[in-house]
Every structure is written in C-alpha cells, then in structure tokens.
Amino acid sequence: MLNGIRQTVTVQPGGLIELRSPELPPGETVEVIVLLEAKPAHQKLGDFIGAAQGNFPTPEAVDQFVRQERDAWES
To answer: What torsion, rounded to 10 degrees, do the Cα atoms 12, 17, 19, 25 define?
Structure first.
C-alpha cells in the first residue's frame, strides 16, 4: 500500500528542495515527484477587450450594432 505526503515547499537557490516529515523513517527508500505549479502568463488589460461573451471585439462593431438597433426602431 502506498502512503503519500503532500507538502508545498519553496525552491531554494541552486534548485534545492528540502522536505521534512516525521512520517519518513530513516533509511527508507522513497520516490519523490516534483510538480511545478503553472503560473498564468501576465496579460495586458487590452487583451481582455471583447473577450467576454456578449462583448464587442472592436469599437466599429459597437457602432454597427447601434446603427442596426436604431434602424430597427425606425422601421
């Protein structure tokens, strides 16, 4: 049966990772798996313009929509 220990640690200079746990018996062979947390890329505020559902991608698209709505009101 496998027992697991999950800890979040900070990587030290030189790529050193230190893991301490009283559950680890001295002399025991263990397997260590390191998962690097993916961090979201920094995005510019302009990247969000028109990205949400129902929003317009450009100012021209807004103008076109408003013109169509005004034409529909007049007919």
So the answer is: -140
* Percent of residues, the chain, with pLDDT higher than 70: 89
Rounded distance, CA 64 to CA 26, Å?
72
Mean pLDDT of 50-60: 75
Side chain identity at residue 3, one-letter code? N
At residue 36, what is the residue type? L
Question: Three-state SS across the chain?
Answer: CCCCCCCCCCCEHHHECCCCCCCCCCCCCCCCCCCCCCCCCCCCHHHHCCCCCCCCCCHHHHHHHHHHHHHHHHC
Question: How many Å apart are CA 8 and CA 11, to the nearest integer?
Answer: 10
For the chain, which residues make up each domain, given as ranges?
13-74
